[in-house]
User: Fold this.
Amino acid sequence: MLAAHTDQRVLGYLGRALSLELSAVQLYSTQARLLSTWGLAEPAERMQAEVQEELGHANRIIERMLAFGVAPGASQLRPVKLGRSLAELLENNLLFERELVGLYRDATTHCARAGQHDDRLFFESLLNDEQTHHDELMKWLEELKGHTGSDLTLPSGTSRTRHLRRERRS
Ligand SMILES: [Fe+2]
Ligand SMILES: [Fe+2]
Assistant:
């Protein structure tokens, strides 16, 4: 049974998050197989590790939904977008991770405004994970392209600046 105080918007964020996380599982799992087919064993292994990470996120969301008395009902998985190179796959993944970051940022902001402390912490933790994932993907792509990423663009106010700052420090 749904807890009386449950914020419907929080449930909405959880539902969208589950759909996106499960879509990420489908996407990265497909890419791991594709990379393996291309003979790129190391990237395939790394992608497979990302599948596990996204699956972990999906599990955390399902657990949270159950705690609210809600049955998970993700019914709309995103179709997988294929590519012809590792760089193409990673560029697509960057967009995907940005969407996750955006969703978790919105959810965190909402919970902060509504004074939902526990929910805010929950979404904030996922936000941090996806932000880190995004930054790692960015770095991977830059290494792959063999430059500092000057032609890679990010929407304003994103981790790009932080990422470059961190690079400069190291
Ligand atoms: Fe995730
Ligand atoms: Fe991710």
Remarks:
- The domain at 8-169 is CATH 1.20.1260.10 (Ferritin).
